[in-house]
Amino acid sequence: RAHKVVPSQGLTDVIAEPRKKWGEAAEDTQSADAAFVRRATGAHQNGWENFIVFTSAVLVSFVFRIDPKFFNVCCVLVLLCRLGYNITYLSVAKGTLSFVRSFFFIA
Q1: Residue 59 to residues 4, 20, 72: CA-CA distances in angstroms?
Q2: N or C of the chain: less Cβ packing under 10 Å?
Q3: Which residues have a Cβ under 8 Å from the Cβ of 98 and sit 6 or more positions away?
Q4: Winning range, highest mean pLDDT, from 22-26, 37-41, 69-73, 90-94
Q5: Structure pTM?
């Protein structure tokens, strides 16, 4: 696994599982099921974090009366990117392919 220690925070940047803390990374839980559950939990938490941003954008679009057709297209694109992000979050178990997940997050 790829680890990068961040001295100022005392955490590790585990590329395949970004929400894993240093103590958890040191645990000897190599089970594929345990890793999948950790990734699923991380994807779920990330979804809630981004839900706030998404709903804020929806409310702002109503306040400023953005063209509904344009906004609907934007919402569909955001939801498709979120779907791609969650699929890659769950399926990418190695740090070498984590850039795909990052692509969907940034898009």
Answers
A1: 39, 33, 13
A2: C
A3: 15, 16, 92
A4: 69-73
A5: 0.62
Q: From CA 1, how far away is CA 94, in angstroms rounded?
A: 7
Judged by phi (left if over 0) then psi (alpha if -120 to 50, else beta), residue 68 lies in alpha
Pairwise CA distance, residues 95 & 74, whole Å: 30
Beta bridge partners of 12: 5
Phi-psi group of 10: left, alpha or beta (phi > 0 → left; psi -120 to 50 → alpha; rest → beta): left
Q: Please give the single-letter amino acid code of residue 59.
A: L
Structure tokens given for 58? 């929806």
